[in-house]
Specification:
Order of helices and strands: EEEEEEEEEEEE
Largest sheet: 10 strands, antiparallel
Distance between the termini: 55 Å
CATH class: Mainly Beta
CATH topology: Adenovirus Type 5 Fiber Protein (Receptor Binding Domain)
CATH architecture: Sandwich
Structural class: mainly beta
Oligomer: single chain
Number of helices: 0
Strand content: over 45%
Radius of gyration: 21 Å
Length: about 160
């Protein structure tokens, strides 16, 4: 005989929005905090503040946002101008009011076999609300592709 007091649990699922400011997304109405918006796209970041390097080209970057977290990846072709620490700044796809150098975090790698570029990292440029890309060129000043991936929280 079946237990008549049993009540099945209903799985709550996200509600799909039609369009928000021209961007399709998803909102989870059961989130107890702010609504979780899911969006993504491409952008070409603006480069500034280069130190010991020349940024030759910037490929189209990809980004996705889930709630307040944004994940970004892309490729820049750079030439180190000195055998030392190198850095440049990239604009963010979605603005954030950064206040410390650790609110953006990520990695920089390259695929050049035998090259003397060391892997690097991505931090916050809190003064300009940008991503700061840093790495070291030991002896190689040739043009190389840097593969950049980072994430940050929208503040």
């Amino acid at each position: 005989m079946a237990n008549s007091s049993f009540t099945p649990t209903v799985q709550q699922s996200p509600v799909v929005l039609a369009t928000v400011a021209g961007v399709e997304g998803t909102v989870n109405p059961y989130n107890t905090g702010s609504a979780s918006v899911v969006v993504g796209g491409t952008y070409t970041p603006t480069v500034s503040g280069s130190n010991n390097c020349t940024v030759n080209t910037v490929q189209e970057f990809r980004y996705s946002r889930v709630g307040p977290i944004v994940t970004v990846s892309g490729i820049c072709n750079v030439s180190a101008t000195a055998s030392s620490g190198c850095e440049f700044l990239l604009t963010l796809p979605i603005a954030s009011a950064l206040t410390t150098s650790y609110q953006v975090s990520g990695n920089v790698t390259h695929a050049q076999v035998g090259a003397s570029y060391a892997p690097g990292g991505v931090l916050s440029d809190a003064a300009g609300d940008k991503a700061q890309v840093v790495w070291r060129s030991n002896t190689d000043t040739a043009s190389r592709e840097l593969y950049i991936a980072f994430n940050y929280r929208i503040i």
